Amino acid sequence: MEVFDANALLRRLSTRLKMRHMLLLLQIRQHKSLTRVAEHMASTQPAITNALSELEGMFGGPLFDRSARGMAPTELGKVVLERAEAMVHDLRHLVRDIETLSSGHAGHLHIGITPFISGQLLTSAIQRTRPDGDQRLTVTIHEGTSDQLLAQLGEHALDLVIGRASSGVNLENIRFEVLYRQQPRLIASRRLAAQLGRVRLDWHKMVELDWILGAPNTPMREQVADIFLGAGIVPPAPVVESYSAKLIGEMIVSNESAISIVPSDIAEELVRVAGVAIVPYSFEWTLSPIALFMRSDGVERKADQLFAEALRAVCQETYSGS
Question: Which letter, b or e, does each residue of 122-159 get, where b requires 16 or more Cβ atoms within 10 Å of its Cβ?
């Protein structure tokens, strides 16, 4: 059995591997045909075939299997493709950082957030992040589910993720720290909230209201369902499914039968910006805490570290009593 020589492989890759090779591998994965790759890259099939053969020689084995259905990555190919994708994302981020620097800013961050992360929290953390004196960061916010965002974090498409720390997420090569926990609040129009605040809540009647909830099988939706199930009631079928806090606020203000349950920090923002009201009712849930996720297999940039520090400070000031 041949002994794997890591040093020899490192020497080959250090001296021969180029970014165009990484781009080629990603194109093959996408198009699954060397002919289509050649057309897309304005090259010839023999040239693409030779380039792939050179790559497989560098890595010491086949990177793709050929079949009637097209080309699919081998186990070795999957490992290489994962790193290729990360390298291409890093290159794009490098270009964006240089562009940002040339415009007088200190750098650029790609931050992923799950639904119901406070905009005020993000704004405060971004404003406090000053990597180089008075120069400020520019930021792109990416929204999605925890699974989607953590996958993008692992691929280097994102620098940081703010989301829910739950047992169901894939934390391979990811480290995290809990930032704060959110408490539930029942929100409605001012008129409906005043009516509900004068009586003891009857969940048998509450189920008949126009509920605005998140998508099925998501943590928030399951928490709301548990509240009704705990009262022995079939959970309501929502009239609208949305995770847009802005939309939820606007719809509740426009419909005096509309109601929703959202985290307390989001509810307080909607009171200020949309004019909703919080129903004075206390109940508990077991929603997973909000956490900051970072890659554990790479070197943090200074901008990443400073944003994380600013975010921790804002969360400590805002949620220390919650």
Answer: bebbbeebebeeeebbebeeeebbbebbbbbbbbbbbb
Per DSSP, the three-state class of 273 is helix
Q: For residue range 8-65, list pLDDT tens digits in order.
A: 888 888 888 888 898 999 999 999 999 999 998 888 999 999 999 999 999 989 999 9
Q: At residue 72, does pLDDT exceed 80?
A: yes
Residue spans of alpha helices (H) in the chain: 6-16, 19-31, 34-40, 45-59, 75-102, 119-128, 146-154, 190-197, 203-206, 219-230, 245-254, 264-273, 302-319
Sheet holding 290-295, edge to edge: 137-143, 107-113, 160-164, 290-295, 174-180
pTM beyond 0.90, yes or no: no
Which helix (H) or strand (E) segment is 139 a member of? strand 137-143
Q: Is 281:212 a contact under the CB 8 Å cutoff?
A: no
Q: How much of the chain, in percent, has pLDDT values that exceed 70? A: 94
Q: Compute the average pLDDT of residues 297-311.
A: 84
Residue whose entry in the numeric block shows the structure tokens 């008129």: 191
**Spatial distance between the Cα atoms of 146 and 141, rounded to a whole number of angstroms:** 14
φ, ψ dihedrals at 3, nearest 5°: -80, 130
- How far is it, in rounded angstroms, from Cα 256 to Cα 77? 57
Tokens for 31? 């198009």
Write the pLDDT tens digit of every residue in 144-162. 988 889 989 988 889 999 9
